[in-house]
Amino acid sequence: MTTTSTEQTEPGFNDKLLMALAIAAVIGGVVAYYYLEGQPTVFRFLSVVGGLAAGGLIASVSQFGKDFWKFVHGARIEWRKVVWPSRQDAIGQAIAVIVFSFLMGFFFWILDFFLSMGVSFLRGTG
Q1: Tens digits of residue pLDDT in 75-103
Q2: Does the predicted TM-score (pTM) go above 0.85?
Q3: In the chain, where are the structural domains located?
Q4: Which residues of 30-64 are buried (b: 16+ CB within 10 A; e: fewer)?
Q5: Residue 5's pLDDT is what?
Q6: What is the per-residue DSSP string for 95-110?
């Protein structure tokens, strides 16, 4: 097993400025959507998508974005390590859950029936 050292650098002023610009780009896309109210819907939609894309690109350059992509990369590596059950095991477990759910539903239905009968008896209405 290989170990890698991960250096955590504190985000500086530039990173915070980049994140502020990214947020401003996203907000700008939404503002443009409402500003272009008389225009065709496709242009309004593209203004929001463009704002999101610009915000994402700007954010990915900052330390926050780099840390996020490291996290995503590590998560994908761990995802590949997961041992998934076979199809037969998955179907068997799904059937067991469905049967158990029906049994518990029946149990609670019967329990509710008898409890409501008891309450009706105690209230004198049954």
Answers
A1: 999 999 998 899 999 999 999 999 999 99
A2: no
A3: 11-82, 85-126
A4: eebbeeeeeeeeeebebbbeebeebbeebbeebbb
A5: 55
A6: HHHHHHHHHHHHHHHH
